Amino acid sequence: MIRLATLQDIESLLQLEQACFSYDLLSRDNFRYLLTKAHANILVAVKNDGISGCAILLFRKNSLKARLYSFAVDARYRRQGVASRLLLAAEQCAMTHQCLTLRLETRLDNIPMQQLIAQQGYQKFATIIDYYEDHATALRYEKKLIPHIQID
Ligand SMILES: CC(C)(COP(=O)(O)OP(=O)(O)OC[C@H]1O[C@@H](n2cnc3c(N)ncnc32)[C@H](O)[C@@H]1OP(=O)(O)O)[C@@H](O)C(=O)NCCC(=O)NCCS
Asked: Best exposed site among 2, 47, 49, 94 by fewest CB in 10 Å?
C-alpha cells in the first residue's frame, strides 16, 4: 500500500533515511517542516505495518514542474518492485497537483536508480559537477507526465 505520510511516520522516515543515505541526510526538523509547512508531499510504501519506501515531492507555486527531492526503499524490500510502484504513485501525485513534468537528480554512481528511471521513461537533461555534500556529480532527469483523460 502507498499512502501519504503523517507526523506519526517521522521516526520510521528518519530510520529509512539513515539506512539508505550517507550524505545530505534529512533531519527530524526537515521532515517536520516538509510534513507541516512546505509545499510538499511525502508518500510512503507500507509493508507489514512498517515503511518500506519513501518518495518526497516538492511543488512550487505557479510551476508545472514537480521535483522528486528524495527517494528510497529499505534494503530488505529491494528488487521487489517497491520503487517502481512508488515512482508511479509520485507521478500521479504530481499530476494531481497539476504538474506536467517530474524532475529528479541522482548521483552519477547510482546505477540502480538510473536503471529504474530509464525503465520508467525519464530523460537525462543536465549534469551538475560537485552537486552533493561529498562533491559527487549529479545527473538531472525529467519525465513529461501525461494525465489520463477518461472519455465516455
Ligand atoms: C534505487 C532504489 C530506490 C531501487 O528500489 P527497488 O525497490 O529495489 O527497485 P525496484 O525493485 O522497483 O526495481 C525496478 C528497476 O530498477 C532497476 N534496479 C533496481 N535495483 C537495481 C540494482 N541493484 N541494480 C541494477 N538495477 C536495479 C532495475 O531496472 C529494476 O527492474 P528489474 O527488477 O525488472 O530489473 C533502491 O535501490 C534504493 O533505495 N537505493 C538507495 C537509495 C537511493 O539510491 N535512492 C535514490 C536517490 S536519487
From this structure: 49
